[in-house]
Amino acid sequence: QVQVVESGGGLVQTGGSLRLSCTASGLTFAIWNMGWVRQTPGKEREGVSCISPSGRNMAYEDSVKGRFTISRDNTKNTLYLQMNSLKPEDTALYYCAASGYYGLLPGPYTYWGQGTQVTVSA
Length: 122
Prior knowledge:
Layout: E1 3-7, E2 10-13, E3 18-25, E4 33-39, E5 46-51, E6 58-60, E7 68-73, E8 78-83, E9 92-99, E10 109-112, E11 116-121
Parallel strand pairs: 2-11
Antiparallel strand pairs: 1-3, 3-8, 4-5, 4-9, 5-6, 7-8, 9-10, 9-11
């Protein structure tokens, strides 16, 4: 049984930082593309960042480029998202997800976590 569990969300002031973590079990983590997807009430899910199985290729949604950094540790089956210079518009429920395809679009993701809430106060 595949389990994807996110952690690290919370409340932070504008300009602050958070580091999200995601641990996946029940799958061969090292062969899966991984990504972070966020959603706010009333809006569709938005791909934030993705990373290839080896970690050599990464992509970011335009609004987070230069502020967010995705990384992975295949020895620990763990995905990370370092978020700096946070803005109120980054407030969302952040999901970790696994996909057989590389890309930011949320549709192809196969396995999803339950999400971790990030709230950025003005």
